[in-house]
Design a protein that fits this description.
This is Transposase. About 60% of the residues lie in helices and about 0% in strands. With about 130 residues, it is mainly alpha-helical. It has one domain. Helix 1 runs antiparallel to helix 2. The longest helix is centred in the middle third of the chain and has 52 residues. The chain is elongated, with a radius of gyration of 33 Å.
Length: about 130
């Protein structure tokens, strides 16, 4: 049996946080005045606080990141609509249209360069 209070295998980040809190609760509940290895309960809490505080900051940033991703999605929907509007406007403009360099530069295939879709097979007998 392992005499160490920590398991030999690595803990996940959440498990590690929970482990710190458990150590604190157990020590506070069962022996708050006891000093182990020249460390008091208060000193243990002080030394482990940074670990918990950084985790809280990370959680706050993850929440902000989720919010920013939602904002980005909403902005992208608006931008997509504006881009679609521009493409339709260029395609319908008499001075530009679907065969213009502007239309091609936007990333679309000009009408004159599009394939017809008709497939001609070689070697077939005509009926």
């Amino acid at each position: 049996m392992n005499p160490l209070p920590l398991p030999a295998m690595a803990l996940s980040l959440l498990e590690f946080r929970d482990r710190i809190l458990r150590f604190r609760r157990v020590w506070e509940s069962l022996a708050p005045e006891k000093v182990f290895s020249k460390v008091s309960y208060e000193k243990f809490c002080e030394e482990t606080e940074e670990s918990l505080a950084v985790r809280e900051r990370i959680l706050d940033l993850e929440i902000q990141l989720r919010g920013l991703r939602a904002e980005r999605s909403a902005a992208d929907r608006k931008s997509r609509g504006m881009m679609r509007r521009l493409v339709w406007s260029v395609a319908g403009d008499k001075n530009f249209g679907e065969d213009s360099g502007f239309y091609k530069a936007l990333g679309f295939i000009p009408k004159s360069e599009r394939k017809t879709g008709r497939v001609r097979r070689k070697g077939r007998k005509k009926r």
